[in-house]
Amino acid sequence: MYICPMYSSELIKGTLKTVILKLLSDTKQMYGYEITQKVKELTDSKIVITEGALYPLLHQLEAEGVVTTETVNIGKRIRKYYTLTQTGNERAKEKIYEFADFIQTMNILLDLKPSV
Amino acid sequence: MYICPMYSSELIKGTLKTVILKLLSDTKQMYGYEITQKVKELTDSKIVITEGALYPLLHQLEAEGVVTTETVNIGKRIRKYYTLTQTGNERAKEKIYEFADFIQTMNILLDLKPSV
DNA sequence: CAAATATACATAAGTTATTTATGTATAAGC
DNA sequence: GCTTATACATAAATAACTTATGTATATTTG
Q1: Which of A39, A96, B35, B48 sees the fewest Cβ atoms within 10 Å?
Q2: Residue A72's CB: how many other CB atoms inside 10 A?
Q3: What pLDDT is stored for residue B47 in this prediction?
Q4: Which residues from chain B sit within 8 angstroms of residue A19, using beta carbons?
Q5: Structural domains in chain B, sorted by start
C-alpha cells in the first residue's frame, strides 16, 4: 500500500500563516501545541508544523496585532491561548481567499481538473 | 473593477520548480525568457518569475540531470533551450502529482469546496 | 516505580531559496 | 536616438524555515 509522505517543505512553506489563521478563525482560541496536533491530524501527517516554525510566527502575529494572547496555568504548566483580533479575522479571510485564487491559477498552469 | 495583484511571494515560493517542469513536459523545448513570459501570460501576471530565481534553478536542474541544454544563435544573441531528460519527465510527473495531492489536503484544511 | 513518551513553551545557529541589484549585449519600436 | 524588449548571468542581501538545543511538567507503559 502506498503511504503518502509529507509534502516537500518547499511546498508547505508559505502556507503556514494561512493555515494558522484559518484554524483560529474556526476555533476562536487555540494554543500552539494544539495547532500542531490539529494540523497533523487533519492532514494525516502530510503537513507537520515544527515548533521552530510555529512559535516565532505566532509571536510575529501578536506583534502585528493579528492575535491576542492569554496565558493559562494547567497544573504547573502553562498554555498560551491565541485569539484573532478583528484585524486578524479580516487577515484570515484575505489569506484564505488569496490561496483559493492561487489554487485556481495553479490548476490552469498545471492542467489539473477543478475537482483534482 | 478589482484587479487581482500578484500572489504573495511566500505563496509562490516552492511552486517554481513544479511550474517549470510542467511547462517543459508540455512544450519539450523552451528557453528561460520564454518560460518567464509564458507563466506571466498564463497567470495574467499573478505569477511573475524573476531572472534571479529562474536561471539559478535552471542551472541546478541541469546539474541534476533533469534537463539538457542546447544553445542556439539568434542573430548575434544567444538562446539556451532546455529539454527534459527521461529522469526529468518522471520528476515532472511526481511534482505535479504531489502538488495536486497538496491542493486536496489544503482544500480540506481550509474548507474550500473542490471546485473553488 | 523508573523510563519513555507526550505535553508545552522558547530561542538560536545554520541552511536554503528567494529578492533585489547589477552587469553585459543585441533587437525592435517610436 | 532613446526607450523598451529580448536574453543571458551572477552576487549580495534578505527572509523563512529546519535542525538543534533548552527547560519543565504530565502521562503512559513495562
Answers
A1: B48
A2: 11
A3: 95
A4: 109-110
A5: 13-108 (1.10.10.10)
For the residues A93-100, what does the mean pLDDT come to? 95
Interface test with A, best of B18, B24, B43, B105 (most A CBs within 10 A): B105
pLDDT score recorded for residue B112: 82
- Give ∠ CA A60-A66-A68 in degrees, rounded to 5: 90
Chain B contact present for A102, CB below 8 A? yes
Nearest residue in chain B measured CA to CA from A111: B22
**Measured between alpha carbons, how far is B35 from A106 in angstroms, rounded to an integer?**
15
Spatial neighbors of A42 by CB under 8 A, at least 6 apart, are B108, B109
Q: Extract the C-alpha cell encoding B27.
A: 512544450
Q: Give the model's confidence band at A54: pLDDT under 50 very low, under 70 low, under 90 confident, else very high.
A: very high
| B101 touching chain A per CB within 8 A | yes
Contact of A41 with chain B, judged by CB distance below 8 Å, is answered with no
CB-based contact, A110 to chain B, within 8 Å: yes
pLDDT band at A6, cuts 50/70/90? confident
Judging contacts by C-beta atoms under 8 Å, the chain B residues touching residue A44 are: 105
Inter-chain CB proximity A13 and B10 less than 8 Å: yes
Distance from CA of A76 to the nearest CA of B (A): 33
In angstroms, what CA-CA distances link A31 with A22, A27, A61?
Answer: 14, 11, 13
Per-10-residue mean pLDDT of chain B, 116 residues long, equals: 73 93 96 96 94 96 96 92 97 95 94 61
